[in-house]
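Q: What would this chain look like folded?
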Amino acid sequence: MSTVAVRYAAAALTDRGRKRPSNEDAFGYSVEDGVYVVCDGMGGAAAGEIASSIAVDEVLRLLSARDRQAPLPTVAEEVIGAANHAIFSRSQRNQNLSGMGTTLVALVVEENRVWAINVGDSRCYRLRGGRLEQLTLDHSLVEEQVRIGRMSRAEALRSPLRNMITRALGTQTHVTPDCFRFDAEPGDLFLLCSDGLTRELSDTQIQSILAVNLPLADRCTRLVEAAKKAGGHDNITAILIQAVA
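A: My prediction, written as C-alpha cells:
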C-alpha cells in the first residue's frame, strides 16, 4: 500500500463510431471533487441518450456533494438508487421513453483511496507497471456464464448473447451497484470506458496504447481511433485518470 500522497489528472473523449447514427454514450467528471462517470444508454429513438445523460448528471452531482465522512459504498448505493429512480420515473411519464436504461461505471478518488462503481458492462481498468487489469466485473449474461465455468472466454466472445446485460439503471425500480475499493499509487492510470471500446479492442491492445508515454488526451484519441479502425460498430467513450505524485 502506497503512503505517498497523490493528485489526479484526467482527459476524456467520446465518439459515435462508424455505424451508429447518434451517440448514446455520455460522460462527465470533476477532478476537484474526485468523481468520474461513463454511461452507455439504451432504448429506442433518443431514449438511450436521455438515460445516459440523466445518469451522468445525477451521479456526478450527488457524488460531488457527498458526505465525505459516510462510507463510500453506502453513499454509492444511495446515489445509484437516486439516478435509477430519476430514469425510471422519466420513462414512466413518457411512453416514447419506455424501457430506456443505461450502464454506468464511475471512479471516486479521495487521496490514495479509489472506489470503482459499476452497473452493466461499462468497465474500469488500471494500468500499473505496464500491466492492465480490469477492476470491475461485467453484469452481462456471457460474463456471468464465464465466471461460473459454463462458458469459455472464447465462447463468450463469439456468443450471439454477448450484448445482453443483466443489470442497468432505469429499467427496473431497483438496481444494486458493485463497489470495489483500491489503493492508488503514483503512476497508476485508470480507464473508464463503454463497451464500444472493449468490443473492438482486446485488453492487450488497450494495454499497448495506454503504455505509450503520451499526454492523456492523445492516448484517449488513440484508443478511440483504434476502436473505429477495428470496426467502430458502437459508440466509443473513454476517460483516463492518472495518479501523480
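The first strand starts at residue 7 and ends at 15.
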